[in-house]
Design a protein that fits this description.
By secondary structure, this protein is of the alpha+beta class. It is about 30% helix and about 30% strand. The strands form 8 sheets. The protein has a 5-stranded mixed β-sheet, covered by helices on one side.
Length: about 475
């Protein structure tokens, strides 16, 4: 009997994918590409001297209720499928019923001199309160940002990074991907997508025009322990926490970006409230603790990391983690670096053939029944990016990275590039490739192995892409 819900879920996903695929195909045109442009070359650039920084936010809340993207399980599904919005699309997923906190678009724009003193180079972080972004969303937002920047400013896959906070209580409606629409309840809503483009462009314009002179980025690396816990037995959780603060020569900061390795999910599948979830409470807690104008959350190696709430409400949790970070900063426990130059690169990667790891799900007996269009429609290409800041580096990974898989890649990168002293990972960035784990964990039984998409060689392909940029 335990197999009945799983079989039912597979049927729902199978037909959902077919319907969503048909909807996308009927509205598709070349101005809305589904995939990154593929050329197999490394894109590179640099900011030789950091000069200025601008930031801006806009609301990501839909004007009308959309489905909550994230938990694609039956608790969020409508059955039978039905129309609940004005768009001509059949949907499977329940709309949100209330708003816990405002989901946001967050822009951080660094600029400075490029290869010549007269040249402006930029590096842009886009942080979105979404469960994930797909390739088409990243490409679409980059094209929109270009419209608000001077023509001489070059934007490409290397200096434009879109990161999702991975809230499972965020809105749907931006992705064109038929697979993502079925898998995560994130079906495109054209009117919402058009509204978000306008808000996004306004935020980019504000960040560019409102830039303020900065002297450096204060980059802190610290270990924040006790607030997350592993979901895979025998695999320790990462505790690495990063804080980037664009700063004046006096030391005063103009903002903060920070990463913490945790699934930012307090709200469950049956909670139908739109929310930034734990990422938002962490942002609020750190902003208040540091006295910053705003703070933007990024995911670390959180593939096997759940929150350790210790009986605390989300607000209390955010305040407690922020207090721990602030205490370490004021006590001098954080490893601190002064950054004035940025070297950035990006490379496309070709992924292994997708497969459903039914062995890890303990439902291998269903293998003869699982031949869905979901597998054939999963993109086989993606990208990885690297940001080098002196002897420190940030690697942008398009998936949920298990901590020891990150450790393996870090060791390989540091061995290949002796000038680097440390490599950190920012995840759910630019695309979604599922869970990324070592072969040993892939062969085990866990949610992460069950939710992986690209087989035993997935980690090797991601690592090879990163190594191409440093060798």
């Amino acid at each position: 009997m335990r197999s009945a819900p799983l079989l039912f879920a597979l049927v729902v996903l199978t037909w959902g994918c077919r319907i969503e695929k048909r909807v996308v195909e009927t509205s598709y045109d070349e101005s809305r590409p589904l995939l990154f442009e593929w050329n197999d070359s490394i894109e590179r650039g640099e900011i030789n001297q950091l000069r200025s920084y601008g930031q801006a936010t806009r609301s990501l809340v839909p004007d009308r209720k959309t489905a909550l993207a994230g938990y694609g399980g039956l608790g969020r599904r409508l059955f039978p499928p039905r129309l609940y919005q004005s768009d001509d699309a059949t949907v499977f997923c329940r709309p949100f019923e209330s708003i816990d906190s405002e989901t946001r678009i967050k822009i951080s724009l660094f600029s400075g001199t490029g290869n010549s003193d007269a040249e402006d180079s930029v590096y842009i972080f886009v942080n979105l309160d979404l469960v994930a972004v797909t390739q088409d969303v990243t490409q679409w937002l980059m094209n929109a940002a270009r419209k608000e920047l001077p023509q001489e400013v070059v934007l490409n896959q290397a200096n434009f990074q879109v990161l999702a906070t991975h809230t499972h209580a965020g809105p749907s409606g931006l992705s064109l991907s038929p697979v993502w629409g079925s898998f995560a309840c994130d079906s495109v809503q054209n009117d919402y997508r058009a509204a978000i483009e306008q808000r996004f462009r306004a935020a980019v314009k504000e960040a560019w025009e409102g830039r303020k002179a900065v002297d450096h980025i204060r980059f802190n690396r610290l270990q924040v322990q006790g607030w997350n816990q592993t979901r895979i037995g025998g695999v320790p959780v990462s505790t690495e926490t990063l804080l980037l603060q664009p700063s004046l020569a006096s030391g005063s900061s103009l903002g903060c970006l920070f990463s913490f390795p945790v699934h930012s999910t307090f709200f469950g599948p049956t909670d139908l409230a739109l929310s930034r979830d734990l990422a938002g409470y962490l942002e609020d807690g750190l902003r208040n603790s540091l006295g910053a104008t705003d703070c933007y959350f990024m995911n670390g190696s959180s593939g096997n990391a759940s929150s350790r709430m210790l009986g605390k409400a989300p607000t209390e949790y955010g305040e407690a983690v922020a207090a721990d970070i602030s205490s370490q900063l004021s006590s001098g426990f954080a490893e601190q670096h002064t950054i004035t130059t940025l070297k950035y690169s990006s490379v496309p990667i070709e992924l292994p053939r997708p497969r459903v790891n039914l062995e890890a799900c303990n439902i291998e007996f269903l293998k003869p029944l699982v031949r869905t269009p979901l597998i054939d429609e999963i993109p086989r290409t993606s990208k990885v990016s690297l940001l080098q800041m002196g002897d420190q580096a940030l690697a942008f990974i398009s998936g949920e990275l298990v901590s020891n898989a990150g450790d393996q890649m870090r060791d390989a990168i540091l061995a290949a590039e002796p000038e680097l002293k440390a490599v950190s990972f920012l995840t759910t960035a630019n695309d979604y490739m599922g869970y990324i784990l070592r072969n040993e964990e892939y062969a085990g039984t866990s949610l992460e192995a069950c939710s992986s998409l690209f087989g035993v060689n997935h980690l090797d392909v991601v690592q090879a892409g990163l190594l191409r940029m440093v060798e």
